[in-house]
Specification:
309 residues, alpha/beta, 12 helices, 44% helix, globular
């Protein structure tokens, strides 16, 4: 906290361009955000030090979230793949018996199953598509860091196709860089305007299986483009079958300033809108994969969601 305060109050941000200071300060998400915002002014002799600092934070975050994310997502995919009308060879007898214990007939010493549980035959290895559409305006710095690391973890799962798109007034697809979150973060330029509609249009044009797609819009919703078109596009995505979630933040810093009118409008379109901590994000993605009620999930987690206006 003292470190962040010194940077802000004493105007020491530019000193971070010097490798000696970068190596002396405590690496954390806020330091990474500052280095991202200084990307264009860091001299060549300091860039390797900056990358080492960023990588140390990224690796710490990834170590903390990977196991839980993999477990939550693979578990959700397994549950979503279960069929209540399985073929005989696909019946999961253990789950079927457990689900029908109340139908046990003691006189026959047997269970009469009224519901079969099994695993559907998966015609395609790819089961879900996840699109992370991330606002790179200056206030979203910590959220961009966490989204980049989560994108890398999700991209490592074979059953999920993950796309990472960052935007301000321009749209940049960083999907090909996701195997290394450090490259992603150094490809982000914090600051500038915001055109959510343009970013959503780009994502919409690359969604091939709407019913199997989860689109997470990570933004404070201060739209610099045409707000009516942005809302209409969200409505069209929801109507097509895409599971759309609007996150006002993905960080431990609490809910930032955001456009309350747009948040209420999105909620009215059936788009759950709220801020989320990094620890809760894996369970959010799992709920979206299973097509559960995200608003109900958030309420169960004690998360306050935007209400329709």
């Amino acid at each position: 906290m003292l470190q962040v305060d010194a940077m802000e109050r004493l105007g020491l941000r530019e000193l971070l361009a010097e490798p000696e200071l970068m190596e002396a300060v405590q690496p954390d998400v806020h330091l990474v955000t500052t280095l991202m915002s200084l990307r264009g002014v860091i001299p060549e002799h300091s860039k390797q030090t900056a990358r080492r600092v960023v990588r140390s934070v990224v690796e710490e975050i990834e170590e903390r979230i990977r196991a839980r994310t993999v477990q939550a997502v693979t578990g959700a995919l397994d549950r979503a793949a279960r069929s209540r009308r399985p073929r005989p060879a696909d019946i999961d007898w253990g789950r079927t018996i457990a689900a029908n214990l109340k139908h046990y007939l003691p006189e026959h010493r047997t269970v009469v199953p009224e519901r079969l549980v099994g695993h559907a035959r998966r015609a395609h290895q790819l089961e879900r598509e996840i699109v992370l559409c991330v606002d790179q305006s200056g206030s979203m710095g910590p959220s961009v860091v966490y989204a980049s690391v989560y994108g890398a973890v999700l991209a490592s799962l074979r059953s999920v196709a993950t796309r990472l798109v960052v935007f301000d007034t321009e749209v940049v697809d960083l999907t090909d860089e996701m195997d290394d979150p450090v490259d992603v973060l150094f490809g982000v330029q914090l600051g500038g305007g915001t055109d959510i509609n343009r970013a959503l249009a780009y994502c919409e044009g690359r969604i091939e299986r709407p019913a199997d797609t989860v689109l997470v819009l990570l933004s404070d919703l201060f739209e610099g483009g045409v707000a009516e078109e942005m809302l209409a596009r969200c409505a069209r995505l929801v109507a097509s079958g895409v599971t759309v979630v609007a996150l006002l933040a993905l960080s431990d810093d609490g809910t930032p300033a955001y456009d309350e009118d747009h948040a209420s409008a999105l909620a009215g379109l059936g788009v759950p809108t709220f801020a989320c901590t990094p620890e809760a994000f894996p369970d959010l993605i799992a709920a979206a994969i299973e097509r559960r009620d995200i608003t109900a999930w958030a309420a169960g987690e004690g998360i306050v969601t935007a209400q329709p206006g």
